[in-house]
Amino acid sequence: MFLSIVCQKGGVGKSTLSVNIADIYSKKGKKALLIDLDPQGNSTTYLHNKEKSTFDSLDLLENKKKIDIDQIPEVRENLYLIPSNQEVKRIISSKLVAGSILRKRRDGEEFKGFDIVIIDTPPSMSSVVSEAICVSDYYLIPTRAEFLSVEGVGQAIKYAKESVRNRKEANPIFLGVVLNSVDKRRTSFKSFYSELKLILGDKLFESAISQLTEIAEAPFFGRTLSEHNANGKAHKEVVLLVEEIDRKMKEYI
């Protein structure tokens, strides 16, 4: 199963969600692969990947060599990482056939050793994001509870639809929008959520991630939320999000 985390706007917590969603699946006994396609490499930095990889995101997209699970570092038990390469910026600015490279790899069963693949995408509307969307079974869009951030959600949904148009092999399902870094105590948030619910309906996740100090602290220490504080509110919220992701996915099986 492939899940892409997509948003063309930066600063919405995309990498934090990608890392911790992948971590929770790995803790459930799933062999999880996290692919960091963002040249900024926030997911790679978060996991403090010190083990030098002989296979990175540029290798993945250039398709010059096959995926070898022995070349992919296991950064946590059951959690593997294809790290970022800054040179992916070069591909972002070029035009690729949407979905071609990663889809060929998937059809060639190069990912067969993994139960779930999470893709952290760059904050852009580019060929690299198209690649991720077109190879995925599902995608979700994180955003902050702010007008300008939510405005970008509509653009991201539109771009995703355009990416898969006329691609018979691509049929990703939009799971919904996740509100991230929110202050649930504020009356304005409750009003904002209610209005957004009217617009998005069941495409708005019930699980929202709070603005918490532990979410900011965990990456500094190179810890996932489960490692930083397994009993903390932040980890519990992401666990609830993953459970909701699973429920939503089952609706389409």
Number of helices: 11
Determine the strand fraction and express it as a percent band.
5-15%
Query: What is the H-and-E element order?
Result: EHEHHEEHHEHEHEHHHH
* Count of distinct strands: 7
Helix and strand composition category: alpha/beta
CATH class: Alpha Beta
Low-confidence stretches: none
Largest sheet: 7 strands, mixed
Assembly type? single chain
Radius of gyration: 17 Å
Report mean pLDDT, rounded to a whole number.
Answer: 87
Give the strand line-up of the largest sheet. Answer: 3-4-2-5-1-6-7
Helix content: 40-55%
CATH T-level fold name: Rossmann fold
CATH superfamily label: P-loop containing nucleotide triphosphate hydrolases
- CATH architectural category: 3-Layer(aba) Sandwich
Descriptive notes:
It contains eleven helices and seven strands. The chain is of the alpha/beta class and 253 residues long. The protein has one domain (2-250): P-loop containing nucleotide triphosphate hydrolases (Rossmann fold, 3-Layer(aba) Sandwich), CATH 3.40.50.300. Helix 1 (14-27) packs across helix 11, helix 5 packs parallel to helix 6 and helix 6 crosses helix 7 (147-164). The radius of gyration is 17 Å and the shape is globular.
